[in-house]
Amino acid sequence: MKSHISILITTLSILLTIGCVSSSKDNKTRINITCHECAGMEVFLSRSSILHTGANEVYQSKFDSVGRAEIEFVQLDTLSLLLVVENKDQAEWKFSTTLYFEPYANIELTIENGLPRFTGDLRIINTYYHYDTPSL
């Protein structure tokens, strides 16, 4: 009987430890961006100028040689952030849109010919945000 209790306690301890480690890895919000025509360019996320509250945090990444970039950050509340793909060859941005984020969301964005396609979490609201936001 004591061995069964010992095995049960050990099993519960292992499961609890695995649960804590797994949740600590998933406590970030992520956006994965694919844009083949953006290879080598910089991409930024910053607070939208619509409702400026708090510090102006900027998250950035760079597209790799095949046009993929990932930005991840920790947040505890919903956010509206401006995503900008910088075009160093021209004065205008390559792409920009306002995005809606919730804690722990994983957003997938594909940009082709300047048009976004959202998949993953929050795809419906971010599609709406993009097509409802006036051009910057």
Radius of gyration: 20 Å
The assigned CATH architecture is Sandwich
Q: What is the CATH domain class? A: Mainly Beta
Write the CATH homologous superfamily: Carboxypeptidase-like, regulatory domain
Largest sheet: 4 strands, mixed
- The number of helical elements comes to 2
Strand proportion, as a percent range, falls in 35-45%
Overall geometric form: elongated
Order of helices and strands: HEEEEEEEEH
User: What is the count of β-strands?
Assistant: 8
* Distance from first to last alpha carbon: 70 Å
CATH topology: Immunoglobulin-like
Oligomer: single chain
Number of domains: 1
Q: Mean of residue pLDDT?
A: 81
Strand order of the largest sheet: 4-1-7-8
Structural class given helices, strands, pairing? alpha+beta
Helix content: 25-40%
Low-confidence regions? none
What does this structure look like?
This protein has 136 residues and is of the alpha+beta class. The protein has a single domain, classed as Carboxypeptidase-like, regulatory domain (Immunoglobulin-like), CATH 2.60.40.1120. It is built from two helices and eight strands. The protein has helices at 2-25, 123-132, and strands at residues 29-34, 42-47, 58-62, 68-73, 79-85, 95-101, 106-112, 115-120. The strands form two sheets. It has a four-stranded mixed sheet with strand order 4-1-7-8, covered by helices on one side. The chain has a four-stranded antiparallel sheet with strand order 3-2-5-6. A hairpin with a 2-residue loop joins β7 (106-112) and β8.
